[in-house]
Design brief:
Blueprint lengths: L5 E3 L2 H10 L4 E5 L3 H11 L7 E6 L1 H7 L3 H12 L3 E5 L7 E4 L4 E7 L2 E7 L2 H16 L2 E2 L7 H12 L1 H12 L13 H11 L4 H10 L5 H13 L3 E6 L7 E6 L2 H4 L3 H12 L1
Parallel strand pairs: 2-3, 3-4
Antiparallel strand pairs: 1-7, 2-5, 4-8, 5-6, 6-7, 9-10
Length: about 270
C-alpha cells in the first residue's frame, strides 16, 4: 500500500520507489515529457505483474517518441502488455499515479521531485473511477516505431550478427536517437553500421521497411545526404538480372578508424 510520501533527486528515482510499492494496474495521468521517459525506463526494469495505462497529452507524447530509444523500448512494453497509451487534451494540471490503493501527485521543485500520496479509501475509489471513465473515452495513441527487440533480432537474422552488434554498440553510446534532426536518427545509425560492415543498400533498406523502421525512400534519401557529406561511399555490385546494387562503405577515414562505440560521436561531429 502506498501509505507514505516519496522524495527523489529525480523523477526516475521517485517512480522506482512508487512503482515498487504497487502491483496490478496503475494509471499514470498527464505526465511531463521527462516523466514519460523515466516511466519507460522504470517499466523495463520491473519483474512483477505491474501494468501501466498512460494517459497523456498527444503533443508531449509525440515529442518524446521522436527519440528512437524511448519509442522502441515503449513498443516492447506495449507488445508485452505492460504498457498501454491513450491521449486526450483535457487533463488535470498535476501529474498523477492512480493505483488500486493510492493516488500520488508528483510535485517538482527544481532538480527534486516529490510524490504526495493518499490512501484514503473513499478518495482513491473516486479517483480511480473518474480516471477509468476518462480512459474509456480517450483516443488510442498510434506508436509506429517497432519494438527494439524486433529490430535487434531481425537485424541479426536478415543482415548479420556483426552489423547487429555494431548497431547495439552505437545505441549504447547515445543518450538519444532522434528522428527530428537533433542528433543521429535510427536510419542514419543503420546506414553507418551497414557501411562499416560493407552491406548492400538494398538489403538494409528492405530490412528497415519490412520491420516498419522507415521506408526504402527514406533510407535512399538519407544515404544520399550522408554520401554528399562524405560520411559514406558506395560501389556498384553487379547482379545476374537488373541494375547493379550499391555496397555501402564508410567514406571518411575518421569513421573508418573509430571504434564502434565512438562511431556516433565522430559522425555527429562530421554532420555538425
Amino acid at each position: 500500500m502506498m501509505d507514505a510520501n516519496y522524495l527523489g533527486d529525480g523523477v526516475e528515482e521517485l517512480l522506482r520507489g512508487a512503482l515498487a510499492d504497487v502491483s496490478g494496474q496503475v494509471k499514470v495521468v498527464n505526465p511531463s515529457q521527462e516523466t514519460i521517459k523515466s516511466l519507460v525506463t522504470c517499466l523495463g526494469e520491473l519483474d512483477d505483474d505491474t501494468t501501466v495505462d498512460l494517459l497523456a497529452n498527444e503533443r508531449k507524447l509525440k515529442s518524446v517518441m521522436d527519440d528512437f530509444l524511448i519509442a522502441s523500448n515503449a513498443a516492447d512494453l506495449i507488445a508485452a502488455d505492460t504498457l498501454t497509451i491513450r491521449v486526450r487534451e483535457s487533463l488535470p494540471e498535476n501529474s498523477l499515479l492512480v493505483s488500486e490503493n493510492a493516488v500520488v501527485s508528483l510535485v517538482f521543485a527544481g532538480d527534486r521531485v516529490g510524490g504526495l500520496s493518499t490512501d484514503n479509501d473513499a478518495f482513491v475509489t473516486q479517483a480511480r473511477d473518474y480516471y477509468d471513465e476518462q480512459w474509456e473515452t480517450a483516443d488510442e495513441f498510434g506508436l509506429r516505431t517497432p519494438p527494439l527487440s524486433q529490430v535487434r533480432e531481425t537485424l541479426e537474422s536478415d543482415i548479420g550478427p556483426e552489423t547487429a552488434t555494431d548497431f547495439d554498440a552505437v545505441l549504447d553510446s547515445l543518450q538519444t536517437a532522434r528522428g527530428n534532426g537533433e542528433g543521429l536518427d535510427e536510419v542514419t545509425i543503420s546506414l553507418l553500421v551497414a557501411a562499416k560492415n560493407g552491406e548492400l543498400l538494398y538489403d538494409i533498406s528492405k530490412w528497415g521497411e519490412d520491420i516498419g523502421l522507415a521506408s526504402k525512400a527514406t533510407f535512399s534519401r538519407t544515404k544520399t545526404k550522408l554520401e554528399d557529406m562524405g560520411l559514406i561511399d558506395t560501389e556498384k555490385v553487379p547482379i545476374d538480372v537488373g541494375r547493379p546494387r550499391l555496397r555501402l562503405m564508410l567514406g571518411d577515414d575518421r569513421l573508418d578508424s573509430a571504434d564502434t562505440d565512438e562511431l556516433a560521436n565522430v559522425a555527429q561531429s562530421l554532420l555538425a
